[in-house]
Amino acid sequence: MKKTIFVVALSIAGFIAVWRFEPGPVQNTSAIAQAPPPAVTAPSTSAAPPTTAPEAPATSSAPPTSSTSDTPATRDTANETVTTQGSAESSRYGTVQVQVTFTGSRIAVITLLQAPDSGRSLTALPKLQEEAIKAQSADIDTVTGATETSESYKTSLQAAIDARGKQR
Length: 168
Hints:
This protein has a single domain, classed as Sufe protein. Chain: A, CATH 3.90.1010. By secondary structure, it is of the alpha+beta class. The relative contact order is 0.13. It has seven helices and four strands, in the order αααααββββαα. 61% of the residues lie in helices and 16% in strands. The protein is elongated and about 75 Å long. β2 (89-91) and β3 (94-103) form a beta hairpin. α3 runs antiparallel to α5 and α6 packs parallel to α7. The protein has helices at 2-20, 27-34, 36-61, 65-68, 70-79, 121-135, 147-167; strands at 81-85, 89-91, 94-103, 106-114. Strands 1, 2, 3 and 4 form a four-stranded antiparallel beta sheet that branches. Residues 92-164 form the FMN-binding domain. One of its GO terms (molecular function) is FMN binding. Residues 30-95 are annotated as: Disordered. InterPro entries: FMN-bd (IPR007329).
């Protein structure tokens, strides 16, 4: 009987510890979030002119001259690298703001400009980034246990996507 009480007490203590657990800072998230923008920004200016030159002859040889004036603009837009920022969205757990780099109309990179530095959002934000890139939109599921952070992330991401639409 004494062993049963001891086991139940330890089980309850273990459940409470797991229930109250909040993960600490993730080292890789900040390194990954800070590394892509310089690498993506530099090629955007130098990569756009070289890709335009080879594509223009291919475009002019394939369609008639009446379509040639429209096609290079379409080609430039399709290969263009554009970076937009979403709105800074605050919740009681912190502020979330994203920066989205588009290659053509596709989301290439999502960078966190502002993010909470503690709590469950540290594990939720990388999941949200991965899902948003897969979905190519802000229409993604929230992460259980980080609902407010997920909603802030999706709102900021949608603002960045909308900003890209206004630039066209």
